Each structure stands twice: as C-alpha cells, then as structure tokens.
Amino acid sequence: MTELSQTCRIDETLPFKPVRIAVLTVSDTRDEETDTSGALLADRAKRDGHVVAARAVVRDDAGAIRAQVNDWIADPQIDVIISTGGTGLTGRDVTPEALKPIFEKEIEGFAVVWHMLSYQSVGLSTLQSRACAGVTRGKFIFALPGSNGACKDGWEKIIRWQLDSRHMPCNLVEIMPRLTER
C-alpha cells in the first residue's frame, strides 16, 4: 500500500478503474494550441490511467459554458467534467454562475479542501478563487482556476486521488454507480 498521509492510502490490492474525463477550458484569450491548463489536466489524467473522452475551449460566457457542460452531461461516454478558468472575481469570470445552477448537489468540501491546499501554494491570494464542484445526473463536475499552478494543485492534491478507485478510506469512483439512485 502506498501511503498518502496518515489517514489516506492507495490499496494496491484493489483494481484501478479508469474514468472517462472531459476537459473544458474557459477563456477569451486561449485556443486549442495555447491552452496549457487544459493540456496539463488532460496529460495528467492520461498519465494516471484515465481516458480523456473530450476536450474543448469556450469563451467566458455562461451560456457557452453551460451548453458545453450540458452536452457532456448527456454523453454516456463521459463520467467526469473538469473545467479550468473563469473562477476568479472579475466581470468576465462566470464559470461558477454557469455551473452551480445545474448542480443537483454541490460538493462543498471540494472548495474547502481546495482553499486549504491553495493557501499553501499562493497564500491569501486563494481568496480570489471560486473553485467549486458538484454532481449532476451521475456526473462529477469540477471547476478549477485557469492557471497551470492551480490546475496542477487541483489535480495532484485532490481530484487525482478521489478519481482513483484504490484510494482509501473512500473515493468518488466507488459511489459513481449510486449517484442516480432515488
């Protein structure tokens, strides 16, 4: 077993179950060629054994963000959506406004843990992030800030472990089949 901390670990005796991830970059200035944050997330997801099922870049527009995410929510070949960008405080930053109305359940703990870890990297500047996560129709949705450092921290310190079916004492993969229960 690989130790992560005193309370979390990877149980190497359990099977790894890859998930299918869609990566969305929200930006008015980046395109597919200059999208380093989306590329970082896609590369890390592949490196860690997952499938990158889709990737897109949309402008900082709540309607455009929501439309792309809704398309992916409806796609049975996608399990998880990770967005990067648009989580700041400026007038153009509208990713949380686009996503929160479609969350059936918000994962409040993600924002709490995000800020704890982000504080270690950027100090009080973490206050400018509105990173969030939720669940909709059986899909996990994570919204990370647009910087490479934020994407690296979000993947390496939180999402990576929760999308590893061997992570103990629990992980998000193990509850995926039950997300749509009534």
For the biggest β-sheet, the strand order reads 4-3-5-8-7-6
Measured as a percent range, the helix fraction is 25-40%
Taking the sheet with the most strands, its summary is: 6 strands, mixed
Distance between the termini: 35 Å
| Helix run count | 5
Name the poorly predicted regions.
Answer: none
Beta-strand percent range: 15-25%
Query: What is the total tally of β strands?
Result: 9
Averaged pLDDT, please? 95
- Using only CA atoms, what is the Rg? 15 Å
Question: What does this 3D model show about the protein?
Answer:
This protein has 182 residues and is of the alpha/beta class. It contains 5 helices and 9 strands. It has helices at residues 36-47, 62-74, 95-99, 108-122, 148-162, and strands at 2-3, 9-10, 20-26, 51-58, 80-84, 105-106, 132-136, 139-144, 167-168. The strands form 2 sheets. The chain has a 6-stranded mixed sheet, sandwiched between helices. The chain has a 3-stranded antiparallel sheet with strand order 1-2-9, with no helix packed on it. Helix 4 (108-122) crosses helix 5 (148-162).
